[in-house]
Amino acid sequence: MWSNQDLSETKTMLEPSKKSDYWIVGIALIIFFTSGILIGRYGTSHDSQHVLDVKQLVIDQISTDQISSNLRYLTSTPHVAGTAQDLLQAEWMRDRFLEAGLDEAKTVPYDVLLSYPLPGVMNKVSLIDDHGRINYTTAGRQPPLGSPEEYSEDIMHNFNAFSASGVVEGNVVYVHYGRKKDYEFLLSRGINVSGHIALIRLGVIFRGSKVELAERYGAIGAVLFSDRIEKTSQDRNFTYPDSWWMPGTGAEYGHVGRLRGGDLLTPYYPAIESAFRINEDNHPGLPKIPVLAIGYEEAEVILRHISPENPAPTKWGGKMDAPYNIGPNLRYPGWKVRLDVSIANERRTTFNTIGILKGSVEDDRYVLLGNHRDAWTFGALDPSSGTASMIEIARVFGNIKREQNWRPRRTIVFCSWGAHEYGLVGSYEWTQQHAKVLNQRAVAYLNVDTAVSGKK
User: Fold this and answer.
1) How far is CA 439 from CA 66, 76, 369, in A?
2) What percent of the chain is predicted at pLDDT more than 90?
3) Cα–Cα distances in Å, from 17 out to 9, 26, 279, 361, 455?
4) Strand pairing of 197-201 and 172-174?
5) Is 350 exposed, middle or buried (0-12, 13-18, 19+ CB in 10 A)?
6) Residues 301-323, mean pLDDT to the nearest whole number
7) Which residue range(s) make up the domain with 247?
């Protein structure tokens, strides 16, 4: 949720006195590609006697103030895929494309399987003592940090999309990054995760693969965490809002489905109304165990309660304020870890927004500029910095078209994808629907997911 991307970038990018600095690298890259690939090589004017310096026109007309305004709207509310805010932003993008002067713009719906936490029910990890009492429990929702505009009651509490629901209780095994070789190492030491909860460090491999392997080796649940060595500086307390480093309460959202791209119910086929859908029950792409990501401060509590009888290898360590022990036993006899997760998978509609600026010579050849639009929270850096920049590129192209009677040589397609965070769903469904045409006519695709750089 409020990671270093979604928290610190919200604060810093909206700071008026510095806003022009944040776009330098991102806009320079976009201008380089769009002017070199989209304009310089393919741009023409209907007036054969007049050769436009389109690259310079783009550079002159790009407005960081306009990008900042776009970003402020895009980050004004959480916009998880499949929600009312998702549709509002899709329609807002369509209106911006039409206002810019593109030839066409429309929203494209897809009926897909998405996943959400149950309202008012906190997903949590607890330590249960030998009398069955709760000794410690995770917060389930991260506290507001920074300014009021960086918090909303619409932010969903901690969850990992497509996790199984359920309550499991048992010992815990620290499995490092949760790779196959990590489990094989544990087995070589006589430690089996079967029947226990796997405590898994994020990184190196996709989180969905971590869950799949935990399930394969017999874990009854999976608790994910980010190690402090990868999320903070040397100073433990130098975190957001005092810096861009992730605070200890930050938990990483993300889906844990096993199909790497597209709607889980319509694999390899677009999720349109007439599509055949496979049954969600016993779906091979959905985990069978509950999964929850927690903050590293919360993970430290769990690590401190693991028995020291099986210390982890040095290379499995990091910078947590806790010893790295493997388990499975806890430090106190009779104590257990309880994982309680409530998730609802639902078919909902998500929307792509597609804008088209037709070419003047090879109008049946497409150059695509795209980015996803949905985010787990405000999405200031990923993806809204790229979306704000893409809208500005469309505005400038439309303005040059009107003022200079100009068109690019080839057709430019602006793509704002929905439900990316659930497994690249929007882009997969659209390309599956138009695969034959794109295979024959698409020339290049430039993705502008994150269009800023730097430490400010």
Assistant:
1) 35, 37, 16
2) 76
3) 15, 18, 53, 43, 15
4) parallel
5) buried
6) 96
7) 119-341
- 198 in the same domain as 161: yes
**pLDDT value of position 24:** 47
Lowest mean pLDDT among 41-55, 133-147, 240-254: 41-55
Residues 188 and 335 in one domain: yes
Are both 229 and 329 inside the same structural domain?
yes
**Of 170, 78, 183, 189, which Cα lies nearest the Cα of 125?**
170
Domain end, chosen from 285, 309, 341, is at 341
How distant, in Å, are the alpha carbons of 53, 246, 349 from that of 342?
57, 26, 22
Selection from 212, 289, 286, 294 nearest residue 252 by Cα: 294
Same domain, 321 and 371: no
φ, ψ for residue 98 (rounded to 5)?
Answer: -70, -40
Q: Are 433 and 354 in contact (CB under 8 A)?
A: no
